[in-house]
Amino acid sequence: MSDEDDIILSELDDEELVQQMFDDLYDGLKEEIEEGVNILLERGWQPYDILTKALVGGMTIVGADFRDGILFVPEVLLAANAMKGGMAILKPLLAETGAPRMGSMVIGTVKGDIHDIGKNLVSMMMEGAGFEVVDIGINNPVENYLEALEEHKPDILGMSALLTTTMPYMKVVIDTMVENGIRDDYTVLVGGAPLNEEFGKAIGADGYCRDAAVAVEMAKEFVARKHNQANA
Ligand code: B1M
After folding, report:
1. Are residues 225 and 200 in the same domain?
2. Which residues are CB-contacts of 92 (< 8 A; sequence separation ≥ 6)?
3. Same structural domain, 92 and 115
């Protein structure tokens, strides 16, 4: 999409640089994405703005062309890899806010689903907001969630699904929690591009999170409510 040889990223103004990063993400150029992230940081951009405006913005374009059959899995994998390179630079910066410990969360992508960028982003933002996060990865059957809940006893269970075919599995997890008599011990938050609020309600989740920022806000709200109830 771009002629890399001619472009010196540091010579571009902010708007041009973000535009170029969209192209570089599209082309799966990890080193260029890392360089772009570092340049924006040097220019005083907030890590969260880089994440949402440059990286998530670029991935939205990739997603549209993937949907339209212009990009295919190998290219999207390269784009995802480039995105992860940029996220790795931002992760410690988002986590070092010095926020007081808010609570804890176990999070994982459901069975049959290997998308993990959104989940990783939620984990990063939650850690930055002071939550302890146990990330159980991708493709999780219900047993994995139950084991992690038993072991870590978090305040919140987070589930991610990016496919219309895998999102119903969230209900399997919640129903099993009900059967095992542990549903009310946890706040269950769900997220992922194909979900919506109605779906969240229908499967019995406590909340649907449109994005990582909403996940943090909801998590804080639920934990505060739980503490108030405990102190009442
Ligand atoms: Co896939 N894929 N993919 N893919 N992929 C989608 C999801 C798709 C919408 C693309 C499209 O057609 N436009 C489509 C799903 C269609 C559908 O179900 N209706 C799709 C498909 C079809 C597939 C395959 C089936 C393709 C194939 O093999 N033919 C296959 C399935 C593999 C599987 O999982 N079994 C597949 C594979 C892949 C790759 C491996 C190539 C790669 C994943 C790499 C990786 O994750 N490591 C990939 C990617 C990258 C995408 C798109 C392009 C981008 C997803 C992403 O990372 N977005 C995606 C298109 C799209 O979503 N527009 C697509 C950026 C991320 C920051 O956003 O994940 O939405 P998101 O997370 C947000 C919120 O949703 C929310 O917060 C996050 C941050 O703001 N959130 C949560 C997410 N999880 C949360 C959990 C929470 C709270 C909030 O818990 C509390």
Report:
1. yes
2. none
3. no
Nearest atom in ligand 1 to the alpha carbon of residue 77 is 41
Boundaries of domain holding 215: 103-231
Which residues form ligand 1's pocket by a CB distance below 6 Å? 56, 59, 62-63, 66-67, 73, 76-77, 80, 107, 112-119, 121-122, 158-160, 162-164, 189-194, 209, 211-212, 215
> Which numbered atom of ligand 1 lies nearest the CA of 213?
80
Contact 202, 168 (CB under 8 A): no
pLDDT digits (tens, 9 = 90+) for 118-166: 999 999 889 888 899 999 999 999 999 999 999 999 999 999 999 999 9
Element (H, E) at 190: strand 187-191
Nearest residue by C-alpha to atom 77 in ligand 1? 211
Neighbour tally for 167: CB within 10 Å: 22
Cα separations in angstroms, 189 against 15, 143, 166, 213: 35, 18, 16, 13
Residue 37, CA distances (Å) to 23, 141, 214, 228 in order: 14, 35, 24, 40
- Pick from 166, 151, 156, 148: which is nearest to 203 by CA? 166
Atom in ligand 1 nearest the alpha carbon of residue 166: 18
Domain count, the chain: 2
Residue 17: which of 28, 32, 3 has the closest Cα? 32
- The reply to whether the predicted model has a pTM over 0.90 is yes
